[in-house]
Write a structure and sequence with these properties.
Length: 311
């Protein structure tokens, strides 16, 4: 059309010559993922082998799904699977809304120094080792010498110590509570970033229309961060089969073995310590496949409900 300036699209490899500095910067991260993330995936083939470390994965005998059948028929596997799903579900229900609430509360603070101190105190637990947190939990929740039980016994509010760490249901409650405390500050960062991206004119318009603070949060803030909430919820659902090793291993004890034994500790006990690497790999592959199914299903449901999802 006359009078209009058309932008010529780069042809051939001209886009590489134009942005070659950016592609050079990509070499290191791409090499990292290829070497440390994708290349190790070749090792998944030992899940289908009678693996012999002296013969290697190229010389070991192929046995199909035998490792999967053996692992799933072990008496401890259903217990570990049940505990993994239950603890992750409890963590999702109790822990997912907390960062959202904290982010909204921090965003509404007007005192900048107090806001910075609060953010630092909330983020700090994320950087603590679970070994350190385990020692803190023992000092606070120990049935006999813990701060909580010692205080309640001294005040005469209870007759005997509450078994936070020695009774199954109490241990599950303690495990979930400590996990929420450790991770809530880190999740708050994402929601604070999403809140800062909301157009401030929307809040001004809501004020002009007579909306109070709670109405502004409900009608402006929450809809503004809804895409972030949906994406993080989908990712959390996809992690329902995965659970860290250090947290249940540090907080668990033999008295609650039937409640704290999860897939990661089961892999360590039944696979790694007995040098059954093929069976350990089979469990890991099983977790990954189920996780992929969960995250795909959650994304599909989200798209059906009218949200964007993650793809």
């Amino acid at each position: 059309m006359s009078g209009e300036t058309r932008v010529k699209k780069p042809r051939g490899l001209s886009w590489i010559r134009r942005d070659w500095r950016l592609y050079v910067m990509l070499i290191l991260p791409v090499a990292f993922y290829l070497i440390f993330c994708y290349k190790p995936m070749l090792g998944l083939m030992i899940a289908f082998q009678k693996f012999n470390m002296f013969k290697g994965m190229w010389g070991s005998k192929f046995i199909g799904l035998e490792n999967f059948r053996f692992v799933m028929n072990m008496p401890d596997f259903p217990v570990a699977l049940r505990n993994t799903l239950f603890l992750n579900l409890m963590g999702l229900i109790a822990g997912f809304p907390v960062p959202i609430v904290l982010a909204i509360m921090l965003n509404e603070l007007h005192s900048v120094p107090f806001k910075k101190v609060s953010q630092t105190l909330l983020y700090l637990p994320h950087f603590l080792s679970w070994i350190i947190i385990g020692g803190m939990v023992l000092q606070i929740f120990s049935p006999s010498t813990g701060i909580i039980n010692a205080t309640l016994l001294k005040w005469g509010w209870i007759d005997k110590g509450i078994p936070f760490l020695t009774d199954g249901p109490h241990w599950q409650f303690t495990y979930t509570l400590v996990g929420v405390w450790q991770s809530m500050g880190w999740g708050t960062i994402l929601y604070l970033s999403a809140i800062t991206g909301i157009n401030m004119e929307l809040f001004e318009a809501a004020k002009i229309d007579g909306a109070n603070k709670m109405q502004q949060i409900w009608h402006v803030t929450l809809p503004g961060i809804r895409p972030t909430i949906v994406v993080l919820l989908i990712l959390n659902v996809g992690q329902m089969m995965n659970i860290s090793f250090d947290r249940p291993y540090v907080l668990g004890n033999p008295m609650v073995q039937n409640y704290c034994d999860v897939l990661s500790t089961f892999v360590y006990r039944a696979g790694i310590t007995n040098s059954q690497f093929a069976r350990a790999t089979a469990i890991g592959l099983f977790q990954s496949v189920v996780g992929m199914i969960l995250i795909t299903g959650a994304n599909l449901i989200t798209r059906k409900l009218g949200e964007e999802g993650i793809w």
